Amino acid sequence: MIAVQARRSRRVERIALVGLRVAAGFVIVAMAALLVYLALEGTKTFYVDKFPLWSFLFSPDFSPDAGHPGAAVYIAGTIAVTVFAIAVGGPFGIAVGVFLAEIAPYRMTQILKPAIEVMVGIPSVVYGWLGLTLLVPLIRTHTSSPSGFGLAGAGIVLAIMILPTVITLSEDAFRSLPGSLAEGSLALGATRWQTITRVLLPSAASGLAVALILGIARAVGETLAIQMVIGNSTQFPQGLFAPTAALTTEIVTDMPGATQGSLLQHALFSMALLLLLIAMVLIVLVRFALRKRA
Amino acid sequence: MAVAAQQAPRSLIASGNVRTRKFADGLATLVLWAMAASIIVLLAAFIVYMIYLGGHALTWSFLTRPPAEHEAGGGIGPEIFNSFYILILTLCFTVPVAVAAGVFLQEYARPGTFRSVVQFSAESLATVPSVVMGLFGLLIFVYTFHWGYTALGGALTLTLLNLPALVRVTQEALGSVPDTLREASMGLGGTKWQTITRVVLPSAIGRLTTGIVLIAGRIYGETAALIFTAGVSVTGNHPYDLNPFHTAETLAVHVWYTHSESVVPDVDRIGNGSALVLLIMVLVFNVGARIVGRMLTKRFTGRAS
Amino acid sequence: MIESPAQTAAPIQDKIVADDVDVFYGSFQAIKSATLAMKAQHVTALIGPSGCGKSTFLRALNRMHDLTPGARVTGEVLLDGENIYGADADPVVIRHRIGMVFQRPNPFPKTIYENVVYGPRIHGENNKRKLEEIAERALRQAALWDEVKDRLSRSALDLSGGQQQRLCIARAVALDPEVILMDEPASALDPIATSKIEDLIGQLTEKFTVVIVTHSMQQAARISDYTAFFHLGEIVEVGPTNQIFTHPKEKRTEDYITGRFG
User: Fold this and answer.
1) Element housing C210 (H / E)
2) Domain C11-257 adopts which CATH fold?
3) Residues C86-137 pLDDT 10s
4) What is the DSSP letter of B143?
5) Which of A25, A144, B92, C39 lies at 20 to 30 Å from C262 by C-alpha?
6) Which CATH architecture has domain A56-293?
7) Do B36 and A194 touch (CB under 8 A)?
């Protein structure tokens, strides 16, 4: 009786294992398919339409109707808005991360951490909408910008969106430091702030680098929120208050109207491929930074 | 300040230095407190502002009527329905595959090529921006499969987008179950599969569910991937359409659409109302995730955590 | 305050005195009515079974409990007659004069040089030449100079465990403190490194007052001048080391020393 039951159990186990392996294999298939399809479609601009890669990357003239989709404007826009976001959100995020790990009393963490989790949960459209209805009019009235759309608005919205990522990862980086480090510094008569700046920050450097890189990755890939505030005008970012565009926003703006197989669509797919490559490079950087820590 | 006997030895700089340092310490602490508080204030302000702007739009008719093409007075009924529809459809695909893959990686897989490749694929998939995933969905489901814009295409695209996150959640949930439980079950003669289904998974169910509900919240708010796969309109004839092969504009997409393309005169009201409803739904998911997770853990394990 | 050699004929001063000190963690009392006078430029050892409160008491001597939420210290600790828990007393200044070496070496992930001069730097010393002088002096006092003088700009984490601990001692000594508190400084080290540290402690008393917590009675017997025996949060007996180990007055002390418990 026991033997029969055991055999049955073994059979169930074997079937289950097959199912699990298939599921795991599916993950590989999905990723591979994604890479292949996007690579194929994204390179059509270059080998079907014969548009030179160099021009695509560096020419500011984006006129696909005339056969010349130069994406430099969008690349510049992506870089500009990301730099803005990380320049504002990076230090702020690390500071709050330090606060949570070293200074905040329990009560405060109980309020702040759920708040940050809520921030993570807010969809990007809602951030975009808030930017559109709150921030853009504010910029319009208080600065030289005629419309209020532009880098400043997009950068601020993006900075707020990457804050939770940078904060949580920074906090983790500080919490993973051994307590004996801070103890040693304080026992030598350092103040808490001296301990944070002279010992903890340098020691957590690789973890903080990860926080920043992932914040950048988030910023590069963000689409809707920026699209609603950046102005979507194909011109180089000229200062903080002129409308401009980024790779992600351009895709969302022009893809719905693009005809299948057109040069415009090919160019947009090339931009998507570029985004994918940037994301992968960033992840490789993160792995590199993590290895340095060990 | 310290009495004479407690000052630093004369060979180093005098006690003025201590005063400066303490001042810097106090100032820095103050600034950090302000930064942390500003986040809370900002968040509260956002929520209050949204309720203020969109609150009055939340009428029953708004929540149930279909959107209007050109006149005022449209609603978001079908969009709300579609959001849930696509959510459930997505979860139907994501949960089985991700949990299975997670169980495999955490409980069965021996270190080796297959395991590393799976892990690497999952991590890479996680880095793909949602708009890029949307284009992939466009390529496969809309073009290659010739489906056009469909709810199913959207759901499958979202499955790919959220697979890595759920795999990670599964792995963490399983990892939080102590090995002693597994040993106990195996020691009583259970097979690995029995151990997992009868002991490990029930113990992990709380955390797993919390993770699933949080991801559901993310799916509910997803936009970029759906614009190119599920489309920006609802089928005119049957707004509460259950056919997965029809277009299905979700609430999140609708918020974007009204502010980018829409031509109705009461754009503001619709946009504000939609955004508010979306926010409320996401908050419900967020809060609900923890409550459900805690309840389930208590139910299945008898412990509070 | 620091006695010069010419005064050694005079009676030995009390450098740091604990007077009726209690330490509470929340509602749990870890130290009860501890009273102990530690003599200047001598080594006082604190011994006792694990968990008896020796480390807790040691940390009360440089106000390390200020850093633990929920910890409370009552009573007085007098450094040259002034209470370090007084209303005007500043922990930052106190830790300048009373240094601490921990059980596990905890060098900062910086160069050897930066580790040693960390203390003087944070207290305001910026003159490069002075710092280099301080570094050499401190490393010599910690018997580490010869081993590291050619690689001061290498990472401190590359040193062996014993060297790291001597670096931590150098780091504490660089501040020219008056008292050095040591919490089982050799317990994480191998026997050779341990004996180096023990020799070092003997040399340190030329300038400093040393209070050392140790779980090894043999170590206490080897290096200390005075010994205090702790049990269940109380100081059971205090006296010259010789006397404690050969003619203990309390039964509990005798039981511990003869190995009946602990």
Assistant:
1) strand C209-213
2) Rossmann fold (3.40.50)
3) 888 888 889 999 999 999 999 999 999 999 999 999 888 889 999 999 999 9
4) I
5) C39
6) Orthogonal Bundle (1.10)
7) no
State how far the Cα of B161 lies from the Cα of B125, in Å rounded to an integer: 7
Partners of B100 on chain A (C-beta within 8 Å) are 19-20, 22-24
User: DSSP letters of B199-258?
Assistant: IIHHHHHHHHHHHHHHHHHHHHT--HHHHTTT-S-B-SS-TT---TTS-B--HHHHHHHH
Q: In a 10 Å sphere around its CB, with 0-12 CB exposed, 13-18 middle and 19+ buried, how is residue B285 labelled?
A: buried
ipTM above 0.90, yes or no: no
Asked if the Cβ–Cβ distance from B8 to C93 is below 8 Å, we say: yes
Q: What is the dihedral of CA A181, A186, A187, A190, to 10 degrees?
A: 130
Judged by phi (left if over 0) then psi (alpha if -120 to 50, else beta), residue C26 lies in: left
Alpha carbon of A96: minimum distance to chain C alpha carbons (Å): 21
- In CATH, the architecture of B59-301 is Orthogonal Bundle (1.10)
Joined tokens for residue C42: 């001598």
Domain ranges of chain C: 11-257
User: Whats the size of chain C, residue-wise?
Assistant: 262
What stretches in chain A show pLDDT beneath 70? 1-2, 293-294
B45-81: per-residue pLDDT in tens? 999 999 988 888 888 878 887 777 777 777 788 888 8
Q: Which of C175, C203, C225 is nearest to C40 (CA)?
A: C225
Token pair belonging to C191:
């026997």
CA atoms within 13 A on the CB side of B262: 24
**What is the rounded distance in angstroms from the CA atom of residue A257 to the CA atom of residue B57?**
31
Sequence ranges of the domains in chain B? 15-56, 59-301
Interface probe, candidates C16, C82, C90, chain B, greatest B C-beta count within 10 A: C90
The pLDDT of residue B304 is 53
Polymer length of chain B: 305
Can you tell me the distance from the alpha carbon of A80 to that of A75, in angstroms, rounded to the nearest whole number? 9
Contacts 24+ apart (CB under 8 A), C140-143: C141/C169, C141/C170, C141/C173, C141/C203, C141/C204, C141/C207, C142/C166, C142/C167, C142/C169, C142/C170, C142/C173, C142/C200, C143/C196, C143/C199, C143/C200, C143/C203
At B296, the amino acid letter reads: L
Encoded amino acid at B241, one letter: D
Decide if A193 and B24 are in contact by the 8 Å CB cutoff.
yes
Gyration radius of chain B over CA positions: 26
CB within 8 Å: A134 and B49: yes
3 state DSSP class of A81: helix
pTM: 0.86
What residue ranges do the domains of chain A occupy?
Answer: 2-42, 56-293
